[in-house]
Design goal:
CATH superfamily of the largest domain in chain C: MetI-like
Strand content of chain C: under 5%
Helix content of chain A: 40-55%
Shape of chain C: globular
Largest sheet of chain C: none
Number of helices of chain A: 17
Largest interface: B-C, 109 and 103 residues
Chains: A alpha/beta (416), B mainly alpha (317), C mainly alpha (277)
CATH superfamily of the largest domain in chain A: Periplasmic binding protein-like II
Radius of gyration of chain C: 23 Å
Distance between the termini of chain C: 42 Å
Number of domains of chain C: 2
Helix content of chain C: over 70%
CATH topology of the largest domain in chain C: MetI-like fold
Radius of gyration of chain A: 25 Å
Order of helices and strands of chain C: HHHHHHHHHHHH
Oligomer: heterotrimer
CATH class of the largest domain in chain A: Alpha Beta
C-alpha cells in the first residue's frame, strides 16, 4: 500500500499547489523599478558596463532598482510586440539598427529629441549609427555601439608565403591568397579565405564598392536598384572573388553555421571576413599568429565600404518612467562606458572616442540598409540570401538573380 | 476534496425518478466543471480575440494603438488567394504524411521487435528510448545541428568512412527537400519513444496462450499476427496516428531551428512557419489570426476520423 | 544452436542496432560535452573523450541562473502535473461513469483544444495574462501549460477508470467503509498506474516547452531551463559547442532522474491506458 501513500501525497501536493498559486500571484506594477531589455551579448560580453551604469543610476535615483532582462536576437521583437499588446513594455529596449525604422514609423518609441543634450558626446555621434535612430527628423534611438567588418588572418601563413604588407586592393588580396593556397595545397579541406556565401552583410560590400545600392526612393516609392549596372558589376566581382578564393560548398551557407572563426580555428582557412571581435575565437593554437587588416576596395588604397551594424537604445512610448529611462540610457552610454565597449572590440558611438583600431579604420567607409518601414521584411524574407545563393551556385545568372531580388525588394518595401 | 469524495456516491448508471436523481444528475457536471472552467478561463478570451483579430487589419501601428481596423473577411481572402499558402499547405500535408507514416511504421516495427528479443536487449532498447524521450526538442535540434554540420559533422565522417561515397564537407541543407528530410529524421527520432512504448504496451496485452495455441495449430505466424495481434493493437495505432497528425501538421520548433532563420524562405515553409512568419515576424497580426483559424479548420478536417472515433469510444458502455 | 535460438540471436542483433542508432545522438551530446575544444574542432572526430574535461560544464554552470531556472522548471512541472492530474481525474470519472447531456460537447472541447495552433494564441494569451498581472510569473506559465496537459490527461485517465470492474467499486461500498475510504482504498490504487503514465506525458511536455515560457517570462531568475538553454544560441557572437552540449546534458538530467524514479510503473501504466484508449 506504499502506492496509496504516494498517490495521496501527490494529491495533497497538487491541492496545496493550487492554493499556493492562487495566493502567490504578485502584482507587477512596481514603483521605482526600471525595466531594461538588453541583448544577451551584453550579458556575456560586458556585464561590468551594465553594472557600472546601474550603479550610477541608483546613485542618482536612490531607492530605484534596475531590472535588466536579457533577450535573444532571434525572438526579441516578437516578445516586444507581445508586451506592447499587453501594455507591459520595458522602459528601455535595445534594438538592432536595421530593426528601428518599422517601430519608429508606427509610433512605438518616445521622441527623445528634447533630451539629446543629456547624452554625452551626442554632438559627435557616429553619423551612420545616429541616422538609424532618426525618423522624420526626430530622435528615437540613442546610438549604443557599432561594429564593422574586417579581415582576420593568419599572419604566419601570409609571412611564409612571402607577403610582407597588408593588401591594399582586392586584386592584391586575391594574389596574396593565391600564394597561400599554393603553399597549403596539401591540407585537406583548406580554403584560402572562408566566406559564407549568403552572408549579405559582407557580400553587399562589393555592391557599394562599385557604386551600387539596394534601393532608393523615387516619387515617394521605393525602387529596387540591385539590378543597376553598378550593383551588377559589384555582384559579379563578388562572385569572381568567391569563386577564386572561397570554399565552393559554402555557397549556400550563412555566417552563423558554421561560424567563420570555427573554420579558422580548425586551421582550414587563412583569412575570414567579419566583425572585428572574430579575433576572440580563433582557437588557442592560432592566438599568436592572428592579425587583422581592413578589407580593401577594388580601388587601390581605399577600404571597401563595410556594413555598419550596431544597436540603438530606445524608450517605448508606453513606458511610464521616461525621464528615468532617458537617464539610464545616458548613464549607460557615457564616455567611460563607451570606452569600455571599445576595449571589448566594439566601435563606440561617437567619433571623438574612436581609437585608431582596425575596426575604426574600417568604419571610415560604410553602408547601411534602406530606411524603410518594411526593410525588416526584406531581411526576414531572406531575399538577399536567396539571391546570393542563386548567383554563387550558378543557378541563375547575376543579372537574372539581381533583377528578381530587386523586384521582390521593391514590392516588399512598397507594401502599405 | 469534497467533490472528490462526492464522486463515489454511485458509480453505476443514473436511474430515473425521485428528487435524488436531480442531485445526482448534477454530479457529472460538477466533476467536469473544474476542467471546463480552467480551460474556458484561460482560452476563452484568447479564442474570442483571435476571431476578432482575424477580421481586422492589425499591424504594428494598430498594435500600439490597441485598436484594429475592421476589414471583414479580407484577411481570409488574401490568404486564400496567396499561392504561397496553397504551396505551403500541400507541402505540409506531404511532410506530415511522411513523418506520421515513418513514425508509425518504424515505431510499430521496433515494438514488434521488442517482443522477439531477449529481456536484456529489450531493457537496453527501452532504456535508450527513454533517454531519447528525455531530450527537449530545443536540445535535440542543437545536437542534430552539431552532428550534421558541414565542416566536421560526424554524419559526414561516418558515411565517408563506411564508403557510402565522399561526404567530406557535404551540406545537408541545400534544397527544400533535403532540409525537410533532415527535419523528418529529427522529428521521427524524437517521436519514436512514445510510439514504441505505447505500441509495445498494447502488444503485451495480446494473450500469449492465443498465440501459442495458434502456433501449435500450425498456423503460419503471419496469420497469427493478422488474426490475433492486429485487432488488439489497431485502436492504439489509430489513436497514435491521429495524435501524430495533430502534432506534425503544426510543427514549428524543429523545422524553424534546424533549417535556421537565414534559410527559411517561401520555398520551404511549413504551415507553422508560414503562420509565424506572416503573422508575427511581419507584424501582420490580423493575417496571422486568419491563418491560425484556417489551420484549425484544416486540422479538424484532417482528423475527422479521429474525432468521430473518439466520440464513439467515449460512449459509456 | 537450434533454429529458434539462431533467430533469437538475429533479432537481438537487430535490437542492438536499433539501440545504437537511437542512442547515438544522446551519446554524441554527452561525449562532446567532455571533450576539449581541440577535439571538438578536429576534422576527424574523437569517439570517446580521451582527456575528459569538466570545463564546459563549469562554463555552463557559470551562466547565471542555472539553479534558479531548474528550480522554476521543477515548480512549473510539479504544479502543472499535480493540478492537471486532480482536475483531469475528476473529469475522467464523469466521462467514464456517467451519461449526461453535453458529454459529446465536452469530448469535442477536449479534442478541439489539442488542435489549436499554439503559435496563433501567443499574443492573445499574453494580453489576458498581462491584464491579470500574470506575465513574468510562473503562475501564468502553469496556467498555459494546463491547457496543454488537461485534454490529453482527461482522455488517458478515462481509459484507466473505465477499466475498473464495477464489482470492485460495489464491493467497496458494501464493505461498509465510508465513501472517502472506498475512494482512497479501492479506486486510487487501481488508477495509480494510470496517473503515473499520464503524468509522464504531462511532465515531459511541460518540461520541454519553450515558446510560451520564452514569451511569458522575462527575468533571468524567473525563467525555465529551456529558456536558460536558449541563451547559448541567442547571441550574435560565438556558439560554444562544448558549453552548449554540456548545458544540454544538464537540461536532460532531471528528466532522466524522473524516469528512473518511476520507470517500473511506466510500462504497466501505459499498457492499461493505451489499450483501452
Amino acid at each position: 500500500m506504499r502506492l496509496r501513500v504516494v498517490v495521496a501525497a501527490a494529491l495533497a501536493v497538487a491541492l496545496g499547489a493550487m492554493a499556493a498559486t492562487a495566493g502567490a500571484s504578485s502584482g507587477r506594477a512596481q514603483a521605482n523599478k526600471l525595466t531594461v531589455w538588453l541583448q544577451v551579448d551584453a550579458q556575456s560580453g560586458w556585464p561590468d558596463v551594465v553594472a557600472a551604469a546601474n550603479q550610477q543610476f541608483q546613485q542618482q535615483n536612490p531607492g530605484w532598482t534596475v531590472d535588466v532582462q536579457y533577450q535573444n536576437w532571434g525572438d526579441h521583437l516578437q516578445k516586444f510586440d507581445a508586451t506592447i499588446a499587453g501594455n507591459d513594455t520595458p522602459d528601455v529596449i535595445e534594438m538592432g539598427n536595421t530593426e528601428m525604422t518599422a517601430y519608429m514609423a508606427s509610433g512605438a518609441f518616445a521622441d527623445l529629441t528634447g533630451s539629446k543634450g543629456e547624452f554625452q558626446n551626442s554632438g559627435t555621434w557616429l553619423a551612420g549609427l545616429a541616422k538609424s535612430g532618426m525618423y522624420g527628423g526626430k530622435l528615437y534611438g540613442v546610438p549604443y555601439y557599432a561594429g564593422s567588418r574586417v579581415v582576420t588572418y593568419r599572419s604566419d601563413l601570409f609571412k611564409k608565403a612571402g607577403i610582407t604588407s597588408s593588401p591594399t586592393s582586392i586584386a592584391q588580396l586575391t594574389a596574396d591568397l593565391a600564394k597561400v593556397a599554393n603553399m597549403e595545397k596539401g591540407v585537406k579541406g583548406f580554403t584560402p579565405m572562408y566566406l559564407a556565401g549568403t552572408d549579405w552583410y559582407s557580400a553587399l560590400d562589393w555592391v557599394f564598392d562599385y557604386g551600387g545600392s539596394i534601393a532608393t526612393t523615387h516619387a515617394h516609392k521605393w525602387v529596387g536598384t540591385l539590378d543597376s549596372p553598378q550593383s551588377i558589376a559589384g555582384l559579379t566581382a563578388y562572385k569572381n572573388f568567391f569563386d577564386t578564393v572561397a570554399q565552393k560548398s559554402a555557397a549556400t551557407l550563412d555566417e552563423a553555421n558554421p561560424a567563420p572563426y570555427t573554420v579558422y580555428s580548425q586551421g582550414l582557412t587563412a583569412a575570414i571576413l567579419g566583425p572585428a571581435w572574430f579575433s576572440c575565437c580563433t582557437g588557442t593554437k592560432y592566438k599568436n599568429v592572428t592579425a587583422q587588416f581592413v578589407m580593401p576596395s577594388h580601388t587601390a588604397g581605399k577600404p571597401i565600404p563595410g556594413f555598419l551594424g550596431g544597436s540603438d537604445l530606445a524608450v517605448p512610448a508606453q513606458s511610464g518612467q521616461k525621464a528615468q529611462a532617458v537617464q539610464w540610457i545616458s548613464d549607460f552610454t557615457n564616455t567611460s562606458n563607451e570606452q569600455s565597449l571599445q576595449a571589448k572590440g566594439n566601435i563606440p558611438n561617437a567619433t571623438n572616442l574612436l581609437a585608431n583600431t582596425v575596426n575604426a579604420r574600417a568604419a571610415a567607409r560604410s553602408w547601411f540598409v534602406p530606411q524603410a518601414k518594411h526593410w525588416v521584411d526584406v531581411e526576414n524574407g531572406n531575399i538577399l540570401r536567396t539571391m546570393l545563393a542563386q548567383i554563387l551556385t550558378g543557378k541563375l545568372s547575376v543579372a537574372q538573380a539581381a533583377s528578381t531580388a530587386s523586384a521582390n525588394i521593391a514590392y516588399t518595401l512598397n507594401q502599405s | 476534496m469534497a467533490t472528490a469524495a462526492g464522486t463515489t456516491t454511485k458509480w453505476s448508471r443514473q436511474r430515473p425518478l425521485s428528487m435524488r436523481r436531480l442531485g445526482r444528475g448534477a454530479v457529472p457536471y460538477a466533476l467536469v466543471a473544474p476542467v471546463v472552467v480552467v480551460m474556458g478561463a484561460i482560452l476563452g478570451y484568447p479564442l474570442y480575440s483571435l476571431v476578432r483579430l482575424s477580421l481586422d487589419r492589425y499591424g504594428l501601428f494598430e498594435l500600439i494603438q490597441h485598436k484594429g481596423v475592421y476589414i471583414g473577411l479580407k484577411n481570409f481572402g488574401s490568404v486564400l488567394h496567396d499561392s504561397v499558402f496553397w504551396h505551403t499547405l500541400v507541402r505540409t500535408i506531404v511532410f506530415a504524411a511522411a513523418n506520421v507514416g515513418l513514425t508509425m511504421v518504424i515505431g510499430t516495427l521496433i515494438a514488434l521487435l521488442l517482443v522477439q528479443i531477449s529481456t536484456w536487449v529489450r531493457l537496453l532498447v527501452t532504456a535508450g528510448l527513454v533517454l531519447v524521450w528525455s531530450m527537449p526538442p530545443v536540445v535535440a535540434v542543437q545536437v542534430w545541428n552539431w552532428m550534421t554540420n558541414v565542416q566536421n559533422g560526424v554524419l559526414n565522417y561516418v558515411l565517408t568512412e563506411l564508403h557510402f561515397g565522399n561526404y567530406f564537407q557535404h551540406n545537408w541543407y541545400t534544397s527544400p527537400f533535403s532540409q525537410l528530410s533532415m527535419v523528418t529524421t529529427l522529428i521521427v527520432w524524437g517521436a519514436l519513444p512514445f510510439v514504441v512504448i505505447t505500441v509495445y504496451a498494447a502488444l503485451s496485452q495480446v494473450p500469449r496462450e492465443l498465440v501459442e495455441a495458434a502456433e501449435i495449430d500450425g498456423a503460419r505466424s503471419w496469420r497469427v499476427f493478422k488474426d490475433v495481434t492486429v485487432p488488439v493493437i489497431t485502436p492504439v495505432l489509430l489513436i497514435l496516428t491521429s495524435l501524430s497528425i495533430l502534432w506534425d501538421f503544426g510543427v514549428f520548433t524543429q523545422p524553424y531551428l534546424l533549417i535556421g532563420q537565414p534559410h527559411i524562405t517561401t520555398g520551404n515553409y511549413l504551415m507553422g512557419i508560414y503562420l509565424f512568419e506572416q503573422g508575427y515576424v511581419s507584424a501582420n497580426f490580423g493575417r496571422g489570426a486568419a491563418i491560425s483559424i484556417l489551420m484549425l479548420v484544416i486540422v479538424a478536417a484532417l482528423s475527422v476520423v479521429y474525432v468521430r472515433r473518439m466520440i464513439r469510444i467515449g460512449e459509456v458502455t | 544452436m537450434n533454429r529458434r535460438a539462431a533467430r533469437r540471436t538475429g533479432w537481438n542483433a537487430v535490437g542492438l542496432l536499433v539501440f545504437v542508432v537511437a542512442v547515438f545522438p544522446v551519446f554524441w551530446m554527452v561525449s562532446t560535452a567532455f571533450k576539449t575544444d581541440d577535439q571538438i574542432n578536429a576534422l576527424t572526430p574523437t569517439w570517446f573523450p580521451t582527456h575528459p574535461t569538466l570545463r564546459h560544464f563549469r562554463d555552463a554552470l557559470d551562466k547565471p541562473y542555472f539553479w534558479a531556472d531548474v528550480k522554476n522548471s521543477i515548480i512549473v512541472v510539479v504544479f502543472t502535473v499535480g493540478i492537471a492530474m486532480v482536475l483531469a481525474f475528476l473529469a475522467a470519472v464523469a466521462l467514464s461513469k456517467y451519461r449526461f447531456t453535453g458529454r459529446k460537447l465536452f469530448i469535442i472541447l477536449v479534442i478541439g483544444v489539442q488542435m489549436l495552433p499554439g503559435a496563433g494564441l501567443i499574443i492573445p494569451l499574453y494580453v489576458v495574462l498581462a491584464r491579470f498581472h500574470e506575465v513574468n510569473t510562473l503562475t501564468g506559465v502553469i496556467l498555459v501549460y494546463l491547457t496543454g496537459a488537461l485534454p490529453f490527461s482527461v482522455w488517458t485517465l478515462r481509459g484507466f477508470i473505465i477499466g475498473i470492474p464495477k464489482e470492485l467499486e460495489e464491493a467497496a461500498m458494501v464493505d461498509g467503509s465510508t465513501r472517502f475510504g472506498a475512494f482512497t482504498r479501492i479506486l486510487l490504487p487501481l488508477v495509480a498506474p494510470g496517473l503515473v503514465a499520464t503524468s509522464v506525458f504531462a511532465f515531459i511536455t511541460s518540461w520541454n516547452e519553450y515558446i510560451f515560457a520564452r514569451v511569458l517570462l522575462n527575468d533571468g531568475s524567473k525563467q525555465t531551463i529551456t529558456v536558460w538553454l536558449s541563451y547559448f544560441l541567442g547571441t550574435s557572437r560565438q556558439t560554444d559547442w562544448g558549453a552548449l552540449m554540456a548545458a544540454s546534458t544538464l537540461t536532460a538530467i532531471p528528466v532522466v532522474i524522473f524516469f528512473l524514479l518511476i520507470q517500473r510503473r511506466i510500462a504497466f501504466g501505459l499498457t492499461a491506458g493505451a489499450v483501452r484508449g
